[in-house]
Amino acid sequence: MSGASIEPVDPVDSTRETLLRAVPVRPGWCDPEKGRAERQAFEPSPGDATGLSADREKYVKPEDVAKRRFDELTRQGKAPGQFCVAEISISKLHETGLSATADPLPDNPGHALIPELNAAIKGTKKCKELQSKVQAAVIKLHGPFDFRLPPGAEGTTPIP
Q1: Looking at residues 123-137, what average pLDDT do you find?
Q2: Beta-bridge mates of residue 108
Q3: How far apart are CA 115 and CA 19, in angstroms?
């Protein structure tokens, strides 16, 4: 999901930076008890035409990444649950032949992409291989984070 770039672009420092990606807590995606994000967590969505979206850790905290994803899904009328945030080593991505590029958005200057992993290859063997490479570059799993309002809070419906 690429947007209008903000100038100047702050180049990604592959030796020091990490990326953050919100992952729903559910079977096959993320297991916070084991501290593991699964391959499925890195599957590109239709909006990832120019690369898998992530956030540069130097711009945002893991909790903020999870909250932004929770809010996006809520606006879409979905009932999101808990999220973990996978922290991905950019240097480990580079070791496997993947890259990370800055893709700042007006409301998210730390937005970044993993361009090789994009919507055009979704569902292919190559996509699964690249997802596994991203999964192997995860160095930490933050969370889980839960932004759901408690049952009975005004204007809400409890989410199971």
Answers
A1: 97
A2: 105
A3: 13
Distances (CA, A) of 38 to 19, 119, 138, 153: 16, 18, 10, 33
- For the chain, the structural domain boundaries read 18-145
Cα–Cα distance, 156 to 139 (Å, whole number): 36
pLDDT at 157: 40
What's the whole-number mean pLDDT along residues 60-67? Answer: 96
What are the distances in angstroms from CA 56 to CA 36, 68, 75?
20, 14, 23
Which structure tokens are listed for 82? 């808990």
Burial (CB < 10 A; 0-12, 13-18, 19+), residue 104, is buried
**What one-character-per-residue DSSP string does the chain give?**
---PPPSSP----TTT-EEEEEEE-STTTEETTTTEE-GGGGPPPTT-TTSEEEEETTT--HHHHHHHHHHHHHHTT-----EEEEEEEHHHHHHTT---EE--BTTBTTEEEETTS-GGGTTSHHHHHHHHHHHHTEEEEEEEE--PPPTT-TT-----
